Amino acid sequence: MTGSGSDWGRVKAILADALERPLEEREAFLDSACRGDAALRLEVDALILAEREEWSFFDAPPPGWAAPRPEPLADAREGSRVGPYEILRELGHGGMGQVYLARRADDAFQKKVAIKLIRPGMAGEETLARFRTERQISAALEHPNIARLLDGGTTETGEPYFVMEYVEGDNLLDFCAQRRLPLAERLRLFETICAAVEYAHRNLVVHRDIKPSNILVAEDGAPKLLDFGIAKLLDPEGTVGDRTATVMRVLTPDYASPEQVRGGPITTATDIYSLGIVLYQLLSGRRPYHVESGEVGELLRVVCERDPERPSTAAAAASAKASESETDADSAVLPRHLRGDLDAIVMKAIRKEPERRYGFVGELADDIRRYLDAQPVRARRGTLSYRAGKFVRRHRVGLVAAAVVAVALAGGVVATLREARRARVAEARAQRRFEDVRKLANSFLFEFHDAIRGLPGATAARALLVKRGLEYLDGLAQESAGDRELRRELSEAYQKVGDVAGNPYQENLGDLKGAIDSYVKAIALLEPIVASGKANDAERSTLANAYLISGGIRVAAGDVGGAIPSSEKGLALRRELAQSSPGDTRRMTELAQAWQFYAFNLSAAGRPAEAYDALLKQAAILKERLAAAPTDRNLRRGLGNNYYLTAAALSARGSLEEASHVYEEAAHVDEKLVDEDPTSVLFRRDLAWVLMDLGNLDVSRHAPSEAMANYRLAQEQFRWISEADPKNADGKVGLAMTHQNVGRLLLDAEGWAAAHEDLEKAGALYRPLLQADPSNAWVGGLMAELDLDLALTEDAAAKAAPPPERAARQERACGFYARSTEAFTRLSTAGRLHGIRESSFARAREGSARCGGAVPSSPGPP
Amino acid sequence: MEQPEREVTALLRDWSGGDRDALERLMPLVYQELRRLAASYLRVERPDHTLQPTALVHEAYLRLVDQRGVSWQNRAHFFGIAAQMMRRILVDHARRRQAAKRDATALRVQAMSAEGEEASVRDPELLALDQALCGLESLDARQARIVELRFFGGLTVEETAEVAGVSSATVKREWRTARAWLAREIRPAGAP
Fold first, then answer.
1. Least CA distance to A56: which residue of chain B?
2. What is the pLDDT of residues B136-145, one digit of tens each?
């Protein structure tokens, strides 16, 4: 009889594993599990088939006896007996029968109990049968918040009855309304109820009829659930119509779940739904649905199809109606408190599809707890802005701080969220990651907040943020071994951290070493797979970007020798990518950009001839693309930048005249763009810097009047930018620089009196910038230069002044020299003094030396 | 009824606590009660519904055991014994009915009593199940016992796990695979 007679243990193991898998996976599983053993496979297949076909055999009760047909129950009256119990009085009656207060006749302690007698006609023989089964299950539940089923039996006339623990108290809604219980206490009460339901679920008992009237709260605030498992007795299986009608008759339609109404399988998700409805009512004072007519069709329509309002909306409507009619509404909960998390929690619990609700009651309770602790709730998991919002609320720091954190975290959080969306198998890991991010964010926020409090600028705090970001990412990197996409995302995240630290092409912290370290990690994550030749395009593109930017950072850090090979590798990867997908305009643009990076690094390395060649390559690509799209502004802007860099390369090579022409071409391209879109800060900025450099070239060419004209034109653009975008430091620095340059020209051409005004304007612009961020080396260097300019001006004024004034001016000049020397020294010590400023430093030192020892530490007012 | 209640409860506790003799004294009490209950249902004249034997076991439990005096483990063990007895009672009864039906057929009695007709519909299935379960016992005694507890005793997965001394997960696996196996064994018998 055992089929093939093969080892049942082995067959059973494979069969059990197969049955636990979803249908669509079974075939593949069996193929591998029974590989090569056709007899084994045949037997398992037959068993699977049998299991499916004969399911109903075991679902029906075993064939047995005929049950007695019960006589209608005579009205139980006070003093009458039910089994060993003496009825004291009626407590109430419901769909299924009466509830009496009773006591055990032979009980010396006179302990009171509640007896539920099933109404005659309610209980068919099926019901009686179920009753006997279920009674044993429900009686096993022992929980402080579940009213115990103490006993049960049938009366002499065969009617079933339950004997339950008698609970004195109000139903949940009355209890909360009468005491005007605040939100947090309502939620804690609900949490306790969830814990009781969870306990029952662990014991494989589903309530099936959770509603406020089944939840009594004693005077001391302890809730108790009544009627556990009893609804099952009165909810026989049948056709959908019958089933639905039964729900109408037996259950409370307003609390019935879609699957109960439709006759689908009843699971723990059914109780979660009902708990959601109870919570809805507890918070909003309204039910999400109300079934008016009591017709089956309406019930189906309302419960299964209608989308309920969110609790916050319902609460607002309820309180509006209450104030209109001046009734005493249960308005202890404000609608605005429900908006967001609580709305989301309730709506997740009452979703129409059971599988989209919370998986366990514990998850629902957990979300309530998280809400109370002001932590992110599961129901709303998945949006970055939501989490950022949570951070803000929890720590009450300013929105600006949160925004900075959100930006810096974006890499890590996005990677985590993406992973969280992946297959459920990865959920545990994603959860751990999520917790990591949260821990990190906490640390960011506390430390960030404290650090920023003592500082005028945010730089130090942001540096801390970058440090924490790195620590976190290092942890993630160690785990990422097998996951290619995560590894690529991590590489991107490292690059973002590096950008904040010191990408010279963006706003940055000037921490070039930190930036380089991050980029080294970003590169190390992807280099091996790219070297193996197995990398996909995304990986190669990400690595190319890392090579190119890190080249730029190395140049800024003075490591020109390291910069060139890095940008060469980036360029090579981008060439490959462009070649492997010809006609892909994005890849072409990226290649053009790579040539530009490369050229920039070559220029910095003092190889302007090669830079020039690279820029010609870039220009060729841009022109090719422009031929197809002559009006494309981005391409035109790219070409303008290309001319700008080409001119710089020519200038560095000593071809000043040629450079001047190319600058003019660049200015021409940029001017047309500004004409076309006068509101664009970007186009104006490009133009302004071209004019500034053109002015500098004119100074080198000893053409001061042309230089003056170009500086004034640049000034116009920078003034427009700093007025249109007051927070743009770049615009203010540019504006200040034009004043500074104009002042120098005037000092040479017209003497100190003419120079003074523009130099003072430059100082007035630099000072607040430097105050906001004392570590800003760029502005610091410019300010040191300006102090030198002011010293030279005072020196010149001293020479022209009569003796008494001369001494004062001399003294002031000495003050400026000293301050300039001090600033240059600071920058030099920090390694932030590059090339061109060395000569200025030398002049400042000379000036200070001439002043001798009697140098005041700071200049007095002019 | 006070007397057996107290006695059964105490015996049950002793047995769960490891007293083997307690089981020997317990079994006749349980069997007696189950038989008595079964007989009382069988006396009813016009039954048109079947009664779940597991409910009967429960009825016996309610009558025999003081529920406040026992743990759920005690309960599980009670149902463990009862399940075994229930199977025996059910199978004996079905055999007698089948025999009566054969006699009736032999006598070419056209009209059968309502009881005979109604109650015997699933008798062949029950007897086939009993036979198949014997087959499973020889292959895997523990698995057969789990089926007995679940099907005839109406025990929950956890209770079954307690009685059989295995984990709940094992009970679920055993129950599911046993159903498949038994279903395949029984099908030919149930076919027309």
1. B183
2. 988 898 999 8
